Amino acid sequence: MGMGDDIKHGAEEMKGKVKESVGDATDNQRLEAEGKADQASANLKQAGDDVKDAFTDDR
Questions:
Q1: I need a surface site. Which of 4, 24, 36, 51 has the fewest CB within 10 A?
Q2: pTM
Q3: Exposure pattern of 11-38 as b/e (b: 16+ CB <10 Å)?
Q4: Which phi and psi (to 5°) does residue 41 adopt?
Q5: How far apart, in Å, are the Cα atoms of 53 and each of 7, 29, 45?
Q6: How big is the chain by its Cα radius of gyration, in Å?
Q7: Do residues 39 and 15 lie in contact, with contact meaning Cβ atoms separated by under 8 Å?
Q8: What is the pLDDT of residue 6?
Q9: What CA–CA distance (Å, rounded) separates 30 from 35?
């Protein structure tokens, strides 16, 4: 996985955390759920990249 992927996945996770926090603060359940989904998506992508790295030794 490249450095660009690390940054992209980290930004997606951060965006999710912000959405979740704003949704929680404004009592907007939809926005809060979107934030959690964004975080889960980013974490899944990071896990997939980690597995790929383990087999290709591309660190």
A1: 4
A2: 0.80
A3: ebbeebeebbeebeeeeeeebbebbeeb
A4: -65, -45
A5: 16, 36, 12
A6: 14
A7: no
A8: 83
A9: 9
Residue 16, SS3?
Answer: helix
Residue 1: burial class (beta carbons within 10 Å; 0-12, 13-18, 19+): middle
| pLDDT tens track, the chain, 59 positions | 567 888 898 999 999 999 999 999 999 999 999 999 999 999 999 998 888 888 886 55
Q: What is the dihedral of CA 32, 11, 1, 33, to 10 degrees?
A: 10
Token pair 């959690």 is found at: 36
Confidence (pLDDT) at 1: 56
Tell me the one-letter amino acid at 43.
N
What residue type is 55 in one-letter code? F
